[in-house]
Amino acid sequence: MTREAVEELERRIEDSSEQLEGLRAEFSKAVVGQRDFRDGLITGLLCDGHVLIEGVPGLAKTMAARTLSLCLDATFSRIQFTPDLLPADLTGTLIYQPETATFTTRKGPVFAQIILADEINRAPAKVQSALLEAMQERQVTIGGGTHPLPRPFCVMATQNPIEQEGTYPLPEAQVDRFLLKLRIDYPSAEEEMEILARMGGHGDPRVGPVVRPEQVIELQGITDKVVAEPSVMNYMVRLVGATRHPGQVGMRELGDLISFGASPRATLALLAAARASALLRGRAYVTPDDVKDVAHDVLRHRIIRSFEAEAEEIGVEEMIDTILSKVPVK
User: Fold this and answer.
1) End-to-end CA distance of the chain, in Å?
2) C-alpha angle with apex 289: 43 to 231, nearest 5 degrees?
C-alpha cells in the first residue's frame, strides 16, 4: 500500500473506532459482562460471517442477538428450530391467488438482517440444508425462483451442550460455514449482582441504534483492508497446518488425538477474524496476538477429535492451547 493509502485507512479506522466503541457500550447496557462474547458477535458481523453460540439455557443468548439487532437498527427474526419444522417455514413458499390464478411469493423469516436460529440442532436435515444455502449463497430458492437476502446478513445459531435427546447433530459441512463458534459461560458473582440490579423487576434496559446497517457494510469494507503482512499470514497457515499434521511440526502427542484438522476455510476465517480483532483495537494492521485471540473461536468447531481423545477426555480447547504454545510466531 502507498503511504497515502495507509494514511487514509488509518483515518477511516480512527473514525470507525468511535462507532465500534459506541456499539460496545450500547450493547453492554442490556447484556452485563460477557465482553469476549460481545466482541465475538461484533467480529462475526465485521467479517460478514455467521456465528454458532454454545451455552446452557438462561445466559442471554437470545437477548444478545436481539440487542445487537436493536443497536444496529437491523431487521431481526427469531426462528425456534423444532423437529417438525419444514424448509418452507424458514424460507417461505408460493401462495396461490385464486382471483388472479397466479402464485405470489411469501417470504419466510430468513429474510432479515439478523437471524437467531434458536436450538439449531433440533431441526431435521432438510431444514438445515435450506439454512445452509442461505448462509453460504446469501440467497433463497422458492419455487424455482432465486431471491437475494438483505445485507448485512448474519446468522447467530444457538445450541444447548447439555441436552442431546431429540437433537440432530449438525453436518460437518454446515458447522464449517460458521465463521466462529463462541462459548458463553456463567457470569461472575459481581456481574450477577449487576444483572439483579438492572433487571430485577424493572424490565429490560432500553437500547437504541448507534450504527446503521449501511454503516455496518462500510465497516466490513474497512475490515477487509486491514493489513496482514506475509509473515503473519504464514503464521496462520502454520497454525492451521498443525491441526492436520501435528506430528510433522513436533507435536506427535496430538497425532492420535485429531481425526481431521481444519480446512483452508479455517485459514480464511482466521485471517478475517484477526483483521476484525485489529480493527476493534483501533489498528490498521494484524499482529500475531490478534491471531491468538481469535484462534479458539475459529478452530474449536473445525477440529474433529479421535476416539482416543474422547476416551481420554482430552478436549479441543486443550489441543488448540498446545498448538498455540508450540507453533513459533516466526
Assistant:
1) 23
2) 105
Mean pLDDT of the chain: 87
Question: Where are the chain's structural domains?
Answer: 3-217, 226-326
Q: Which CATH class is domain 226-326?
A: mainly alpha
- Which residues, 6+ apart, have CB-to-CB distance to 133 below 8 Å? 139, 140, 141
Place of cell 438483505: 150
Separation in Å, CA 330 to CA 208, 233, 252, 270: 44, 11, 21, 17
pLDDT digits (tens, 9 = 90+) for 40-58: 999 999 999 999 998 877 7
d(CA 155, CA 112): 10
CATH class name, domain 3-217: alpha beta
CA atoms of 176 and 181, how far apart (whole Å): 10
- Write out pLDDT tens, residues 110-129: 999 999 998 888 888 888 88
290 SS3 class: helix
Rounded to a whole number of angstroms, the CA Rg of the chain reads 21
Angle between helices 35-46 and 61-72 (to 10 degrees): 50
135 near 51, Cβ under 8 Å? no
Burial level of 271, CB count in 10 A (0-12/13-18/19+)?
buried
Helix (H/G/I), strand (E/B), else coil: 35: helix
Q: pLDDT tens across 174-228, in order?
A: 788 899 999 888 888 988 888 888 777 666 678 888 899 999 999 999 999 999 9
Q: Is 3 helix (H, G, I), strand (E, B) or coil?
A: helix
